[in-house]
Amino acid sequence: MAKITDQERNNYKDRVKHYELMAASLLKTEKALLAETMKETPEAVMHKLALVDEMLNLSSSYIAISGVSQAVFKIKNEEALNEARKSIYRAVIYLEEIVSNYIDAPFSEYEERLSAIASFDPNQRYGLIRKMGLAIDLLENAYGDNSKWKWTFVEIEGRYATTAKNIIDLRNIYTNMNFESPYYESTVYHLRLIKKLLAQSADRYREKYELSTGQTLDFKIGINFLIALRRLHIILSESEDAESVKKKMSIWTQKLDADVKKQEEAKKKAMAL
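Predicted structure:
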């Protein structure tokens, strides 16, 4: 690795100063907003929504710092990237606390949560979800291929997919999908994104199971994402798509059952030795 010159070091400091100041300011904002969320007021949940947005802004600042390091020194700033990852996690957690983290559940089980953010319209919800997705993509790209955090992103993306689904108002979905609705476009795109994310998360969890952990829990989570996707197709009266996902669920379940049986037989043989 080439020695870093004073000029490069000073160039780096000058270029990251803005992002460091922004990060410091956002951390103060987070602290202030957290204090507001602790108050039993109608506005508390909206302050938590603001927290989600600010944490995504914070992650962008840290990713930018690493980008400057890459440009000046030709190396990533791992510390900044780790802080960006933690910021995105906090954004996801804050959103889960608002809309729930249920991968597959009837809308009635979390509908009441959404009533607290009724003033946050479908356009704003879709905008926030897109922003979160962009932040995750930017971070994953910043880490690069073969990162030690590769499989961690399976969880992050899965939780993102879940919140993207749970924040949409399914009770008014057909009204918002009406051509004359001001929310038509965002609702259609939001639903399209949810379907993509649920299918992607299912595939990624199966990939994690087969290529990394070998833990049946990962495979089961993948199947849960398929169940959630099928439920959504049924709600939207997309019978062909629902049937297609059902077939995939059946194949995956058979595969899981066979794998579990093999593991149990292997344990019995090992114990007999």
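Summary: The CA atoms of residues 102 and 162 lie 7 Å apart.
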